[in-house]
Amino acid sequence: MGDAAGIGPEIIVKALTHRDVYSFCQPIVIGSPTILEKACQPIPSVSSERRETGLRINSIKTPEQASAIYGTIDVLDVSSIVPEEISFGTIDARAGAAAVKAIEVATHLAMLGELDAITTAPISKAAINRAGYPYPGHTEMLAAFTNTPDVVMMLCTPEALTANAGRNVGNKHVGFAVSFATNHIPLADVSKSLSIEKIVKVIRITQQALIHCGTPEPRLAVAGLNPHAGENGIFGDEEERFIRPAISYVQTPNATIDGPLPADALFVKAKQGYWHAVIAMYHDQGNIPIKLLGFGELVNVTLGLPIIRTSVDHGTAFDIAGKGIASESSLVAALNCAAQLAG
Prior knowledge:
This protein is of the alpha/beta class. It is built from 12 helices and 13 strands.
């Protein structure tokens, strides 16, 4: 369900008003039935835009109890928080703890095979830290819950990993995806967090995901860390110390791995479809261009896990939480992507 003080409950309810969602999956919300009940109610200030949904909440204790019927939201009750306790747009340890609990339960059920995939609504990193959990984000939390040492965050357009994954137009790919060598760390720590081994793992995990999704010979581009990819050492030596050796290590006759390339020009060509995926060195290097390209329609996928996990391309949006104006488009795309990956 994500953070109860954010837009998670609202976009879940809106997503489940799409009848076609029930044609490709049997959605079960893991969280608080009372929070979801409130999210189903109209908001007086925007009643002209958001009317009564007509949805009802079905509180369940196990996935087998789900009705999977359009018009009913099956909620696996794992939280004692109620709407009266939570104020929209606030950092609340109770909401943070409830979000972590829901993710933990979902992961456990997926590991047992009782769920085919999980899709997560946004969490507040500040709230989960205030609740005593040290995770910097979903990616690291899921790695810990599944005891997976090497995971990769990928942000992609819906077609990059799903039905159109292997389809090319001419010599250009129709999807767009970015994997990250580092995730939620300070910019000042990026350089010292890079290594040949880490970059090799990110490249290989990204290749394996694309192959699994129907692209037998993925084309990858690896971004340099520094301006102009270091300009032969003038602007930094990370390209020569880490990035170029990593590319050489994994390069094979059947693999196309270009780089290290200047990130500014690289993303222009990536948008045009020259590669199936880009390997970015740090969070904003990859997130800014791909979100500029398709914000609101992108899917976050955690690669390398023993389970399928997708998510939205945005955060809790505390500034608009409770106002009834949040868009569910990324969540619907994430649900669809999870269903196709599971299928």
